[in-house]
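Hi L., both proteins are below.
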Amino acid sequence: MADGTSSLPAEIVIDHLQNLVLGTEDVKEMLDELADFTARALSDSAVAFSSITLMRQKKPLTVAYSEQGALTLDEVQYRGGDGPCLAAIREQAVIHVPDLGRERRWPDYTAAARREGVGSCLSVPLNLQGEAEAGLNIYSTRTYGFKGDDIERAQSYAQEASKALRLAVQVSQLTEAKAHLTAALESRTVIDLAAGAIMGQNRCSQESAMRILKIASNTRNVKLRDVAASVIASLTGGTEVHTHFDV
């Protein structure tokens, strides 16, 4: 990103990010493409790699990276509990380290960065509007690899990238919710089947059957669903119970 180099025009960047969101079905694939495109959109060949850190429930996670080196540096930050990306997210401010050889705040991180051939780095917070917190990390092989215009360009780019990441987080949350709902429905079905079997065997009410299952669960210190599954297995000769839901 030194003087004399150029980056992609803003309209091309915006158009690409929109197509990325609309045309990529897999969330992980979309995020990896976003990280890869970041390195190409914002810089010259001196930029080595980029990554995206997502902070959910105060736990950082690299959700995308263009090269293995970016993941390595992110994980060094996570282990140490601090670094430029975590600081950018925490302070909601751009963190620019122009010369990692002179940086003294994060010795383990800077040592790892130098081993990866990184001379300078730039971390920009991403606005997810309450969904979570995130940061965009860009690494250059040069010291002083990011000039004033580069930092402004990165901030503008981050605004557009935030939209793509925000959608990815929302899709991920919906997927998790669907998985949890499916698991809950499957567990409920297995328990109801077991209760029905106990009712038939003991000629008791559903309430009594459920009480029997819960007593067995507490006595054995085993989950209610697992107790129910063992009841069904004993009646079916060990045949596994299959449930099917489309939610």
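That was the first. Here is the second:
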Amino acid sequence: MAKLSFSRQILPVVAIVGIIVAAILVARSQPDRGMTQPVETPAQAPAAQRGGSVAGSGVVEPSSELIEVGAFIPGVVDRVYVQAGDQVAAGQPLFSIDSRDARAAVNEAEARLERLRRSVGAARTTLNVARRQLALYSSVTDERAVSRQEVIDRQGVVEDAEARLAVALAEVREAEAQLESARVTLARLTVRAPRAAEVLQVRTREGQYATAGPAPGNSAEPLMTLGVTRPLHVRVDIDENEIDKVALERGAIISPRGNATSRIQASFVRAEPLVIPKRSLTNASTERVDIRVLQLIYALPAEGHQLFVGQQVDAFVPARRASAAK
């Protein structure tokens, strides 16, 4: 049997097999360019407004906007009175901070005020005695019985008693102010709802340390978030190059993101007069990050939808007629 030559017989066969395998791998790695129906129908203008609407992205928010609640005074949270989803009334307690130090300060201020009030009583008694003695000395006309110097001394005693009473009264007023300050501090340790609203989120638990704030510009998250959800509003961003096309004071069609078949009629509420940089990005390839937007606020109906605060939506705002735009 003839010996096979590696360079003339085996190597060409290996090369041909490699070429075939590479061609198969390349063919399989090519993307499928066939036309198929999309899994989800993209958002599109309603038929009634097609060709006559301006599209914008929006976010569902409470009609009161978000009410972010924090602690006035830092400390350990000793009790949380509500949970997410609760409806609260104005002034209803939300959570409280450990108040043992504040209660002790109130008790101390009350005791000091009581002591000073008793001092005022003693000063009044001293003043009354001094005045009666002065009147007694002044009623004696015989200088041989009561000298002029003794009358002057009694007048000095009265004036001294009056000054001591004035100081005691001032100390009482100071103690009353300190007591009121201590009571205010104690009251601020119980954070209450600023208005009737729904609890949207609770970020604190009993036993956690709560910092005071957040102050303006602070990145710390609020301890609780409230909002009036009856009704809900939608904040729609309209790009600045399409502001002139929008027909204000007319309703809009709202569709939840990813569900173009759901179309909700929303009523116009107001237009924010300040054009601001765009914050809600859709990640579209044609979207510019340096664009400015006009924000339009629309009210959702009370029923007929299942939208939640913070949910992104697609909005279709009626466009002005060509004659009106000129």
